[in-house]
Amino acid sequence: MFRTPTTLPSEIEVALKVALDCAFAVHRELGPGFKEKIYETAMCLEMESRGIRFESEKPIVVRYREWTIPGQRLDLLVEGKVVVEIKAVRSLKPLHRRQVVSYLKAAGLRAALVLNFNTSYLKHGIRRVVL
Questions:
Q1: Burial of 66 by CB count in 10 Å (0-12 exposed, 13-18 middle, 19+ buried)?
Q2: Which 3-state string (H, E, C) describes 40-80?
Q3: How many CA atoms lie within 13 A of 130 on its CB side?
Q4: Model confidence pLDDT, tens digit, residues 94-117
Q5: Hey, what CATH class is 10-130 in?
């Protein structure tokens, strides 16, 4: 079935681009092979050095009926608009996309990047998720 591409506001597109620019810089410097936390910290340092607004380990609340369940965290939230989920795995799986879709819904956001740093070329480890 053909699906019309979702158009995002320009500020979200800009946040996606700056997050990707930082990810490419980190991957160029570190390459594959480290734990996810190393890449998350490097991403924070890169964004900080560029003056990009971000939150690391941002807590979100999951709603279940009339209750709220705390305890979920986003790896990175860039410019208050884009979730960045950092992975260092052999390959991205459908589960990783589903996880990020759940995060977007819980946080009330529309766009995310799943970045797998455990690749020779980062471009092969990028998944853009848009609601």
A1: exposed
A2: HHHHHHHHHHCCCCEEEEEEEEEEECCEEEEEEEEEEEECC
A3: 11
A4: 999 999 999 999 999 999 999 999
A5: alpha beta
